[in-house]
């Protein structure tokens, strides 16, 4: 499938080195996004900062790929979905989620959502909650295979507004049926579950061999 690229000659050590270069840049831009939302500095200072940002952007664009980052695989089997808006370490829009596989086959992630993800005042935008659940369920749906499963359907039930701040999400496979995996999960805060989801994830035609 276009966008899935095997990169020859790139070792796990090389991937770690690249991670150490690019992840801090995304962290800095993520902090910049938060500051641009909450700052109260004057117009002259905003103009000066904007000029510096435009200069930095031009320097980064001096060498860049055509199109999006895609998903890159190394010769050691490392997966690099670094432009992904949920987990991409090079994507400042991503929280990013760090997925952890559980001993029972499920997955979970603990993460923080700040001002950039606000919908209702003080709370996470519902679309962001859905994206987190889509990714968590999609991750667990593909955990029994080296091939991805794509979202067929996703049903989200919002039990209450999800507050900004420290959050937890988890997912598990409930059953499989041929090319389909059925998964469920939830997002929670310190007070309990805020949203639940169920989804059907399908092995795409190009990956069925």
TrEMBL record:
One Pfam match: 4HBT
UniProt record, GO biological process: fatty acid metabolic process
GO MF annotation: an example: hydrolase activity
InterPro entries: HotDog_dom_sf, THEM4/THEM5_acyl-CoA_thioest, Thioestr_dom
Reactions it catalyzes: hexadecanoyl-CoA + H2O = hexadecanoate + CoA + H(+); (5Z,8Z,11Z,14Z)-eicosatetraenoyl-CoA + H2O = (5Z,8Z,11Z,14Z)-eicosatetraenoate + CoA + H(+); octanoyl-CoA + H2O = octanoate + CoA + H(+); (9Z)-octadecenoyl-CoA + H2O = (9Z)-octadecenoate + CoA + H(+)
The Thioesterase domain, residue ranges: 122-193
Record key words, sorted: Apoptosis, Cell membrane, Cell projection, Cytoplasm, Fatty acid metabolism, Hydrolase, Lipid metabolism, Membrane, Transit peptide
EC number: 3.1.2.2
Localization (cell): Cell projection, Ruffle membrane; Cytoplasm; Membrane
Cellular component GO terms, alphabetical: cytoplasm; membrane
Topology of this chain in the membrane: Peripheral membrane protein
Keyword Cytoplasm in record: yes
Homology family: Belongs to the THEM4/THEM5 thioesterase family.
Protein's recorded name: Acyl-coenzyme A thioesterase THEM4
């Amino acid at each position: 499938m276009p966008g899935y690229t095997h990169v020859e000659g790139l070792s796990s050590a090389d991937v770690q080195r690249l991670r150490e270069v690019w992840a801090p840049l995304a962290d800095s831009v993520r902090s910049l996004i938060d500051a641009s939302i909450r700052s109260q500095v004057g117009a002259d200072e905003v103009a000066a900062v904007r000029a510096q940002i435009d200069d930095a952007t031009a320097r980064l664009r001096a060498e860049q790929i055509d199109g999006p980052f895609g998903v890159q695989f190394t010769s050691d089997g490392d997966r690099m979905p670094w432009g992904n808006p949920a987990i991409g370490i090079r994507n400042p829009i991503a929280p990013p989620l760090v997925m952890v596989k559980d001993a029972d086959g499920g997955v979970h992630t603990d993460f923080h959502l700040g001002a950039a993800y606000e919908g209702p005042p003080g709370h996470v935008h519902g679309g962001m909650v859905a994206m987190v659940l889509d990714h968590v369920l999609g991750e667990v749906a593909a955990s029994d295979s080296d091939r991805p499963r794509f979202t067929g359907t996703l049903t989200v039930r919002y039990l209450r507004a999800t507050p900004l701040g420290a959050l937890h999400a988890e997912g598990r496979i409930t059953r499989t049926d041929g090319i389909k995996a059925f998964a469920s999960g939830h997002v929670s805060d310190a007070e309990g579950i805020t949203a639940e989801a169920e989804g059907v994830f399908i092995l795409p035609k190009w990956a069925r061999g």
